[in-house]
Write a structure and sequence with these properties.
By secondary structure, the protein is an alpha+beta fold. It is built from 7 helices and 6 strands. Helix content is 58%, strand content 15%. The longest helix has 31 residues.
């Protein structure tokens, strides 16, 4: 039995079935991310200024990742346009670039995550707060783990722009990291930049991890159409072209979400 309207448009919507389906799916995705963005805005507006972290994300890396996704949006359109012009070889080239861009984005994001897991903020009992790295770059370290390990101090490399003592910014002018030894007894709280660190990082990891899952899912679909799925081009080229277009619509949505995520999380 043949499935109707896989290549030709439906008379009631003017669209083929897959395109109707992807638009309905993307509508649900808009509601999902819309709810999360709304939650972020409400949490941000309701937070005290001194309790909301600033400048703790790597803006150059985020900017580069934005450029990677924008390039992938162009190549996914070029892949579809190549099929419309019956240029299957060019389709394969542009589709491969799209997959490589997706993998590059995920690789850069994983590097960024690892840096957050080894980057710490220390709250001292005297009110001092500083950010930086602990010697050896351990991940997910807490004060309780230090006490259990019998440690009496930590070697801390404090960031120059986020090292504070009272109201002073130490090292901010020199731009050099400051090496300090901190006694365990002087630590009130120790946390890496993980979801438990603050409301900001909780929503940061929720939004970016969910987006990264969408990037991975989109890359798998696009990779399938590049590989074994491309056999359909030789038997039903119109239907295959439609599949590539539907995958491209999802990919554009994923890119658009990041266009909103980048300024909201990194710049504001």
């Amino acid at each position: 039995m043949d499935i109707p309207y896989t290549s030709k448009p439906r008379p009631d919507t003017g669209l083929y079935n897959a395109k109707v389906g992807i638009w309905l799916f993307l509508a649900s995705e808009v509601m999902l991310f819309g709810a999360l963005f709304s939650s972020y805005i409400l949490l941000r507006v309701g937070a005290l200024e001194e309790n909301w972290p600033h400048g703790l994300l790597n803006i150059p890396i985020g900017t580069f990742n934005t450029a990677v996704l924008i390039i992938s949006s162009v190549t996914v359109v070029m892949a579809w346009a190549s099929l419309k012009m019956k240029q299957f070889g060019r389709f394969k080239i542009f589709q491969a670039i799209t997959v490589l861009c997706a993998l590059a984005f995920l690789g850069i994001k994983s590097f960024e995550y690892k840096d957050k897991f080894t980057h710490y903020e220390v709250w001292k009992t005297d009110g001092t707060r500083m950010t930086g790295h602990i010697e050896g770059n351990p991940m997910f370290l807490t004060k309780a783990k230090l006490v259990a390990a019998g440690k009496d101090k930590i070697e801390f490399l404090a960031d120059p722009h986020h090292y504070s003592e009272g109201k002073l910014k130490i090292g901010a002018q020199s731009g050099e990291h400051k090496h300090v030894e901190i006694a365990i007894g002087d630590i009130k709280r120790l946390s890496a930049f993980v979801p438990a660190h603050s409301t900001y990082f909780a929503i940061y990891f929720t939004l970016t991890a969910l987006h990264a899952l969408h990037v991975l899912g989109g890359a798998i679909v696009i990779g399938f159409l590049f590989g074994p799925g491309s056999k359909m081009w030789h038997t039903d080229p119109d239907r295959f072209t439609n599949r590539v277009e539907v995958a491209g619509l999802f990919w554009h949505f994923v890119d658009l979400v990041w266009i909103f995520l980048f300024p909201v999380l990194y710049l504001l």
